[in-house]
Amino acid sequence: MSLKVEQLAIGYRSGKKSTVIAENLNFTIKCGELTAIVGANGIGKSTLLRTLGRIQPALNGSILLDEKPVSENTVRELSRKIGVVLTEPLSSRNITVTELIALGRQPYTNWIGSLSAVDLGRVREVITLMGLEPLKNKKCFELSDGQLQKALIGRALAQDTDLLLLDEPTTHLDLYHKAQILKTLQGVAHNSNKIIVFTTHELDLAIQLCDRMLILGPEGYYFGEPCELISQKNFETLFPSDLVRFDAKTGTFKIQ
Ligand SMILES: Nc1ncnc2c1ncn2[C@@H]1O[C@H](COP(=O)(O)OP(=O)(O)OP(=O)(O)O)[C@@H](O)[C@H]1O
């Protein structure tokens, strides 16, 4: 299993006009790898993530999952292959954490949506994995933003897809829980052989925990292992150097 991007152009179409956000993207992510997409505000991280998940169309090029163009899958096929966690608010919060996570099993349930023993087992597994046991019977409206974020990631993990795409999954979390979530995602990628891709502004954590990183910059993009990107000085391209500078020794940005 792999996620292969060939000559991909991402952006927006409005009538006959198209706005290209990034183009000529080429990279391959293998199963068992955790990958972060990083870059400055407005550079195109979410646009790329949504394009990879077929939530918005590519302007050009192709996205292949296990050598098959994602565009050739039906919606139901895609729901078993790609799980997506976006930053949009939940439409209804009047359900329990367990019910929310169980929604992730929808691609596998029958037409009346009843959960099998396998579905229920997976829901229980995810509740334990995400540390949601104490919250499992709480209604979603009773949760803090960080707790809800964990439950939403739980829903996507219950979906059990080969590819999991998450847009800023650690935004509302404190440092401890940011590290905990990213460690959990790393564990899922490594132990269950999944491809997990997420956008983030947490450069330090991503450098420490990811197998690959994709840096989107104003002049182009860089893709590789964090240590390669550090030694090639690619992190220096992320921001103008008047205020912050990347320190290759510690792998962190320092304020000038
Ligand atoms: N629906 C849309 N129509 C047209 N342009 C859009 C749309 N959504 C985003 N853009 C533009 O696309 C560019 C990339 O936006 P995107 O949200 O992908 O950036 P990002 O890197 O995720 O930013 P951030 O770190 O601030 O979340 C921005 O210039 C934005 O204004």
TrEMBL record:
Keywords linked to the UniProt accession: ATP-binding, Cell membrane, Ion transport, Iron, Iron transport, Membrane, Nucleotide-binding, Transport
Primary localization: membrane
Pfam families the UniProt entry points to: ABC_tran
A GO-annotated cellular component: plasma membrane
BP term (GO), one: iron ion transport
Domain of life: Bacteria
CDD domains tied to this protein: ABC_Iron-Siderophores_B12_Hemin
Membrane topology: Peripheral membrane protein
Gene Ontology molecular function: any one: ATP binding
Alphabetical list of InterPro entries matching this protein: AAA+_ATPase (IPR003593), ABC_transporter-like_ATP-bd (IPR003439), P-loop_NTPase (IPR027417), Siderophore_ABC-ATPase (IPR051535)
Domain ABC transporter, first and last residues per copy: 3-243
Cellular compartments annotated: Cell membrane
Annotated PANTHER family: IRON(3+)-HYDROXAMATE IMPORT ATP-BINDING PROTEIN FHUC
Protein name per Swiss-Prot or TrEMBL: ABC transporter ATP-binding protein
Organism: Lentiprolixibacter aurantiacus
